[in-house]
Amino acid sequence: MPYSALIIDDEELTLRTLSRSLRQEGFEVFTALSGEDGLKAFQEQAPDLILLDVVLPGMGGVEVLRQIKLANANAIVIMMSAYHFVERAVEAMKLGAFDYLVKPFQLDDMMTTLHRAAEVLALRVRVRDSVESEKGRYNFGRVITHNPVHIQMLEMARKAADADRTTILILGESGTGKGVLARAIHYASPRTSMPLLELNCAALPDALLESELFGYEPGAFTDARRRKEGLLERASGGTVFMDEIANMSASVQAKMLRVLEEGTFMRLGGTSTITVNIRLIAATNENLKNAISQGRFREDLYYRMNVVQLYIPPLRERREDILPLALEILQSLNKELRKSFTGYSLAAAELLEQYAWPGNIRELRNVIERTMILTPEGEIDVNHLPEEIRDRHGESRVSQPFSEADISPTGDQFLSLREMEDHYIEQVLAATGNNKTQAARVLGIHPTSLLRRLKAMTVE
What we know:
This protein is an alpha/beta fold.
């Protein structure tokens, strides 16, 4: 176990014995004979875990523990004492001690405790690596949008992320990316290193949803044979993302209101109050005001959740984002599927832009993935797209109001073929960050041809 340990004990024999045993197990060992020296060593060496005697000259062990926890709340401290001081043991455990060993203890018992501590350390490393990976995957800088409403919403989300106790309500149709936004908020917040736990309220029956959220005590119901911590307990210190909140039962709504107002709840079948520190991000694709008028959702819970409201526009209201998103998804799936698609033809790009996308970004990704699996590599053309995209093109085109991009500078209702090509070139350049080499590859033309075309567009 390649970890470091600090032993704080005023008995030199104990220090030598413990040091020898820990080094044999592969620990790097530091020692201190007093609480003051122990704190200094803790600050200088930053050990992975601490073995701390309760009775020390000068500053006592419990106070040293308190100071260590103030400096690093996640420090793993194992307390030791020659006497079983019940009051001190209770106080130490309340302060966050990992374990309490009574001297004289068997070295095997101590090593069992150290191995458990090492497992926690290993888990923390994995969690830290996972957090760094997720932070890279879910961050505001990776959101693709040119839509003013969406850009304004993202700016609000960035500000809300910093206020890590503020409850956020995300509204939007299914498939617009409410879960992605919730993760971006968590990983941009001060809670980034703490858990992010997610629960879809529509995916579980009422009774199971309640037990998953709040946990239960033995005997709470027929199959409850042992105590189970709920999601709220496991997420304490971090963020809970609850999707489809309109599906919560009246009982769960009442308990969640108490969690938001007081930070407390009781397990099912429990009698003691549990305090948690969570940040709630809630989401729904329903109109909650309609749910309130129908008696399905508590009005007081709605106002308690609706501190910061973020609305994600559907894809049909941000058509300028469809092609950049389609290109980004294609590049991502090229890596995932080990393909080498180059882009979309002009006609296929127009179909993608004009389709209504009732399933939003989720549907867009599914359509592109299906097309890439079933189509020979190269450029995606109209005949490669699913039938529903081709068949509903005309209907979608007629039903949507014309945008400025649909009207030519000469006043005609439709763009000419040349204008369509120029428009597509501009969008590809925007999607590739004005990288002309990459844009030419996506367009399927030589970079010199693209430069000539851009020069002609400028003259025109």
